Amino acid sequence: MLNKANEMDRFTLGPYSTSRSMDSAKVLVLNQTFEPLQVCGARRAVVLVFLGKAERVEDSTRVIRSPSMTFLVPSVIRLQRYIRKPAKPTIAFNKKNILKRDAHTCQYCGRNGGERMTIDHVIPKSLGGRTVWENVVSACRGCNLKKGNKRPWEVGMRLLRKPTKPHSSSYLGMLAHTSPHHESWRKYLPLEAEAPR
Ligand SMILES: [Zn+2]
User: What ranges do the domains of the chain cover?
Assistant: First the structure.
């Protein structure tokens, strides 16, 4: 194993690679169950495949070379052993993150009010509305005032979109790397991660 790992140290980017550096080539790592786990660098992915710890699922168009071998860089790999997933880091439920989720945009009129946005309970607390991701939205002062302690439809207001709990940060991280280069990742990521917020 060690010798193999040393061999990997001598790998260099082949002539078929693009000008993007090796580090920028990201590989989606799937658990043994095909669940997406994380994103790693191309080099690490090739080492995992080389050592038999992972199998290639999708290939990229890149190549890396050692003095004696040429490897096609995968774009998706799958671990041979099941890795217990670390608990998903939950996104803190607070005003800052609610505004972030809604891109500091009033969810009634669409105005962007930056940090000066207020938080509105869609179903008012006085009517049993809960303080949860699904019932709070960013609202400008004007809309918040207009809506008062009513349900939106009672005052002729409509939400621009349904508030939901944000994706876990790990999926956001995968999404951040998703680009035309990673078209091959799409079918392994949950549907929700495909729709940028
Ligand atoms: Zn508004």
Answer: 2-85+169-188, 95-155
For domain 95-155, say whether CATH 1.10.30.50 is its number. yes
Q: How far is the CA of 115 from the centre of ligand 1 (A)?
A: 14
Q: Minimal CA–CA distance to 73: which of 17, 5, 32, 116?
A: 17
Residue 120 contacts residue 106 (beta carbons within 8 Å) = no
Averaged pLDDT for residues 143-164: 95
Ligand 1: distance of its center to the CA of 140 in Å? 4
Running DSSP on this structure, what letter comes out for residue 54? E
Q: What is the pLDDT of residues 68-126, one digit of tens each?
A: 888 888 999 999 999 887 666 677 888 988 888 888 899 999 998 877 899 999 999 99
Q: Given this model, what pLDDT does residue 184 score?
A: 81
Nearest to residue 80, comparing CAs of 146, 9, 29, 15? 29
The pair of three-digit structure tokens given for residue 176, joined into one six-digit string: 């951040």
Give 103 Cα–ligand 1 centroid separation in angstroms.
Answer: 13
